[in-house]
Amino acid sequence: MISPNYYLVTLVIVLIANVPCEAQLSSTFYDRTCPKALSAIQTSIRQAVSRERRMAASLVRLHFHDCFVQGCDGSILLNDFTGERVALQNNNSVRGFEVVEAAKRAVEAICPGVVSCADVLAVAARDATVAVGGKSWIVKLGRRDSTTAGSKALAESDLPRGSDSLQALISNFANKNLNERDMVALSGSHTIGLARCVTFRARIYGNDNVSIDPGFARLRQQQCPQTGGNDNLAPLDLVTPNLFDIKYFKNLEQKKGLLTSDQVLFNGGSSDSIVQGYINNPRSFLSDFGASMIKMGDIEPLTGANGIIRKTCGSAN
Ligand code: HEM
């Protein structure tokens, strides 16, 4: 006769196996369920960046803006034009959606319904960085997707602004468990990409009270008038705008940071020594950047039974 204990133990095992646990992200998450996912994403991102170098910058930023609003849950990718997508910091600014969607399609073609959009974006940000000369890092995986976008108000309070002071930036990142060094390293991604005149006008006309190289100010004023031309673009790194290097930090040393939030990182405050350290040891920037991207990718992910795997990134199934 089978003892009653046998049934009890079996029941407990069945129950435990069905309880969704608070899973941790892991770099091997898709090793069994979709072993070719990462190479499919990489191929897709390499193609997109070779078509347009700026896309590398846009993808890195998209991952950042995803993670800072409601966690790294792919929420920014949803085609909801009432929430975070139309926040001041995103509206008419974030881009790269069709590239993420194409990478997701490539993954869906080999293993449908397995890989989240949040993970596709995290991998895309890494592959984009590498495609323009950055150093690789190991992306942790297993994020699931949100069913809704973050609100406009949440995005406006949680995303930093180009006019922010050093203290504001430090506390904004601290709210996401990122320290001052992470903040400086991650700002180093402004070594690639472009910004709109409206985001740096106050600075180049001397209205932010943060010192600026006069020749650089005049140069930028040529494409960014006092009124009008809000969407005119300028490179965040005037020296090598398409290369992931430390020129961004060198510019700060020369008071040629484009945004106020760039220049405050080297303006006689606590982060000067971090910037100086990266200039002295470029490799330390490249490795810190990867480590901080891993930390950023850990912000409030949906795991286990939370969230969904979207079929397309723009809509919640
Ligand atoms: C420290 C606080 C930060 C502030 C205040 C800030 C602000 C900005 C602003 C105002 C722009 C220009 C947007 C436009 O004109 O449409 C921009 C662009 C960009 N940001 Fe940041 N950012 C910050 C941190 C970061 C971080 C942490 C990352 C990534 C890890 C990042 C990546 C980028 C990239 C790559 C671009 C260029 C995007 C493109 O060309 O499409 N930024 N940022």
Automatic annotation (TrEMBL):
Heme b binds at residue 190. Residues 1-23 form the signal peptide. Residues 24-317 form the Plant heme peroxidase family profile domain. Substrate binds at residue 160. Pfam families: peroxidase (PF00141). Ca(2+) 2 binds at residues 191, 237, 240, 245. GO terms for biological process: hydrogen peroxide catabolic process; response to oxidative stress. CDD domains: secretory_peroxidase. The record marks 61 as: Transition state stabilizer. Its main location: secreted. Removal of H(2)O(2), oxidation of toxic reductants, biosynthesis and degradation of lignin, suberization, auxin catabolism, response to environmental stresses such as wounding, pathogen attack and oxidative stress. Binds 1 heme b (iron(II)-protoporphyrin IX) group per subunit. Binds 2 calcium ions per subunit. The active site is at 65 (proton acceptor). It comes from the Eukaryota. Ca(2+) 1 binds at residues 66, 69, 71, 73, 75, 84. Its cofactor is heme b; Ca(2+). Belongs to the peroxidase family. Ascorbate peroxidase subfamily. Belongs to the peroxidase family. Classical plant (class III) peroxidase subfamily. One of its GO terms (cellular component) is extracellular region. GO terms for molecular function: heme binding; lactoperoxidase activity; metal ion binding. InterPro entries: Haem_peroxidase, Haem_peroxidase_sf, Peroxidase_pln, Peroxidases_AS, Peroxidases_heam-ligand_BS, Secretory_peroxidase. Disulfide bonds join 34-111, 67-72, 117-313, 197-224. It catalyses: 2 a phenolic donor + H2O2 = 2 a phenolic radical donor + 2 H2O. Keywords: Calcium, Disulfide bond, Glycoprotein, Heme, Hydrogen peroxide, Iron, Metal-binding, Oxidoreductase, Peroxidase, Secreted, Signal. The lineage of its organism: Eukaryota, Viridiplantae, Streptophyta, Embryophyta, Tracheophyta. This is Peroxidase. It comes from Salvia divinorum (Maria pastora).
